[in-house]
Amino acid sequence: MDFSLSEKQKMLKNVTRKFAEEFIVPAARESDEKQELDDTVFQRMKGMNFFGSCIPEEYGGAGLHNDSIGFCVVIEEIARGDAAWGITTAVHNGVVAYPIYKFGTEDQKQKFLIDLAKGNKIGAFCLTEANAGSDAGGVQLTAVKDGDEYILNGTKIFATSGGIAKTLLVVAKTGEKDSRKKMTVFIVDSNTPGYSVGVKEDKMGVRASNTSELVFQDVRVPQENILGNSGEGFKMAMKILDFGRIGIAAQCVGLGQAALEASIKYANERVQFNKPIGKFQAIQWKIADMSCAIEAARLFTYKAAYLHDTGSDFGMASAMAKLVSSEAAMQAAHSAVQIHGGYGLMKAYPVERYFRDAKMGEIYEGTSEIQRLVIAANLLRKGA
Length: 384
Ligand SMILES: Cc1cc2nc3c(=O)[nH]c(=O)nc-3n(C[C@H](O)[C@H](O)[C@H](O)COP(=O)(O)OP(=O)(O)OC[C@H]3O[C@@H](n4cnc5c(N)ncnc54)[C@H](O)[C@@H]3O)c2cc1C
Prior knowledge:
By secondary structure, the chain is α+β, with helices and mostly antiparallel strands. The chain folds into three domains: about 5-120, Butyryl-Coa Dehydrogenase, subunit A, domain 1, CATH 1.10.540; about 125-230, Butyryl-CoA Dehydrogenase, subunit A, domain 2 (Beta Barrel), CATH 2.40.110.10; about 235-380, Butyryl-CoA Dehydrogenase, subunit A, domain 3 (Up-down Bundle), CATH 1.20.140.10. It is built from ten helices and ten strands. The strands form three sheets. It has a four-stranded mixed beta sheet. It is globular. About 55% of the residues are buried. The model has no long low-confidence stretch (mean pLDDT about 95). Flavin-adenine dinucleotide (FAD) binds next to strand 1, strand 3 and helix 10.
């Protein structure tokens, strides 16, 4: 077993870290306040090909489709700079661009994937509805067949990047009125008549990441825009989330790492009782615990990525990675605020933002309870 990053992965880590420190970190506080991603950073990220991280070069990507650990390293470093950019990049790549690469037809790749990979268009994954959160089987947005087209009607909520996205993966119900789980995934262009962006959410954390309601009123989508097979959308959505959770886990690792580093710096600088507070065992133990939790989370995340790339069953591993990483980030952010004392609550210090951002990780792409459910279901199915 080799725990070291390859030379290419080390290079990716260094380049992304340098980029994040130079451009993402300085813009993070203002973006959080404005609830908007910085456009200059966006253009630079496009130039770095971050929006096509896990897409092959032939479709305009950076070629990490067979190197999910490399993809994790990139997301981790982006999120270490700003978790809002971390989720934006992870969602765009993991649950929109990559599924089109993996499950799409060649025509769909030419039509949608290249622009996504180049960052010319941002993608959103639209599953959640007012009455279908953890219970994704409860989707009520309908797609009714009409000749060679489907007509979509309904409303999605909480879509990451929804308000800025030009390409949407929409999970719709295509079965009978009472049937659950008979669904289909459609690729929808935001220019299609009848589509509109509804409420933009005002959130606690990852505030710069756009989270929006999306409204579909008689939106006509050609049947060639079906991703995978008609009627198999629920299974497809679950597969998409299996990979997506690896990206979210990496985002949480990056955020946790930022909280740890801020705490170490502060513990060495802040003097109370004539000593740096890092000399007190109470503070040392917090730092040790944060470090262990984040390192464990990183290993869980890389293992899920490794299993994905080697063609193994990785669904349970990605649920474990997402669970462990989001809880490690939350624990780290909590301790980071405590170590900073009163200053930890002030906007002048980034740990205040890390704390709000970390809570999000325990909710999106399946809550911690749902990850535990997925893990237990896998174990119980396999038996002793
Ligand atoms: C910032 C943000 C970004 C998001 N981005 C996207 C996106 O891009 N696309 C998208 O489709 N969705 C997105 N979501 C939605 C997100 O995936 C859901 O919020 C999440 O799955 C939980 O659904 P819910 O909010 O309806 O909570 P509910 O499902 O109502 O859950 C409420 C509580 O009950 C618990 N619970 C529910 N069922 C069970 C059970 N069977 N066993 C034990 N506990 C249970 C939950 O864990 C939770 O604690 C985003 C959400 C947020 C906050």
